[in-house]
Amino acid sequence: MKTRKVTFASRPQNQPDASTFAVVEETLPQLQPGQVLVRVDHLSIDAWISTMLGAGSLHGALPIGGTLPALGVGTVLRSQDPSLQQGDAVFGPLGAQSHVVYPAGMLRALDTSEIPARAHCGVLGLTTGLTAWVGLNTIGGLKSSDTVVVSAAAGATGSVACEIARLRGGRVIGIAGGPDKMDYLLNQLGIAAAIDYRSEDVAARIKALAPQGVNLFFDNVGGTILDAVLDNLAMEARVVICGAISQYPRLDQVTGPSRYLKVAERNASMRGFTVDYWSAAHADAVAEISAWQKAGQFRLREEVLQGIDRFPEAMLKLYSGHIGKLMVAP
Ligand code: NAP
């Protein structure tokens, strides 16, 4: 049996482009005891994948020729392990490929009776919904009285962060780029206000929208946007560093916050996190998000590109603009 996969063809100087990736076909190995053959159904397109393309990478540099890493959901086609049966839906680090032979222990069986498997790339995804929940609650101590600002608010993690903060009663201000994203944030996600960082003065708009200051900032972007929010913190604000996508193309030349002394002045805290480190919180996150999802309370938009050959295009969209959760269906 063959698999079609996306490999790392060349290391980009700055942002990745089409020459960064190659699509190849390979024959899969024979199934051994303890292994399963999985058809990959949906892959989660995540910013962390792009952090592995540079030489001095945040999560370790991907070797040239290696298969692009990706989390995803799939269906067991054949099993040589008693823990998984043919037809089971599974979640795991499936990689950018159409089929894969893996040890069963690398995969988690999913209960799809009430929530479809692909939600485990989106609202229940480790790198999307669980990241938003852990960042806001475990790290940020979200309160219903908070004025919450979210950057990259119309992306995957940002959208779910907006939704969780809104569902908990917070007043949510989203920052994103372009009129379509403003429309999505205000009219689909239903948050209180949206700021277009491409055409507006972010610091001035936050000052006008939150005259008492920002209580909780969930930052996905870093750079100048982080500075603009630091200038408008409320007393005892919490700044949660989820990521810094504006800095990923040049991790060897990261621009740190020049307004960080505001943290001292406002008696605030600034704390980063990685979602996998906080695994003890995941069960609570899954329980609360699942309840909202079953009640139909999430409005996260999903964009699914069909075919593994479109994985490179999906990766480039992370920088050129997409709305909500981006996935590839191999
Ligand atoms: P995403 O938000 O769906 O996509 C990235 C978004 O970033 C784009 O839609 C784009 O939106 C925005 N962006 C790109 N370049 C930018 C720039 N130079 N300045 C401002 N905005 C820019 O991606 P995601 O996978 O959900 O990741 C979002 C963030 O969460 C990333 O920083 C990622 O590293 C972080 N994350 C952290 C953890 C953790 O454990 N801490 C886990 C998962 C993800 P615009 O069109 O609005 O610019």
Describe what you observe in this structure.
The protein has 9 helices and 15 strands. Strands 3, 4, 5, 6, 7, 14 and 15 form a 7-stranded mixed beta sheet that branches. The protein has 330 residues and is an alpha/beta fold. Helices cover 25% and strands 26% of the residues. The mean pLDDT is 95. The protein binds NADP nicotinamide-adenine-dinucleotide phosphate (NAP).
Features:
Quinone Oxidoreductase, Chain A, domain 1, Rossmann fold, about 25% helix, single chain, alpha/beta, globular, seven-stranded mixed sheet, binds NADP nicotinamide-adenine-dinucleotide phosphate
- At CATH's second level, what is the architecture of the largest domain? Alpha-Beta Complex
Query: What is the CA-based Rg, rounded?
Result: 20 Å
Specify the helix fraction band: 10-25%
Strand percentage lies at: 25-35%
Terminal-residue CA separation:
16 Å
CATH homologous superfamily heading of the largest domain: Medium-chain alcohol dehydrogenases, catalytic domain
Shape type: globular
SS element count, helices: 9
Q: Would you report the number of β strands?
A: 15
Structural class: alpha/beta
Overall tally of structural domains:
2
Major β-sheet annotation: 7 strands, mixed
Mean pLDDT: 95
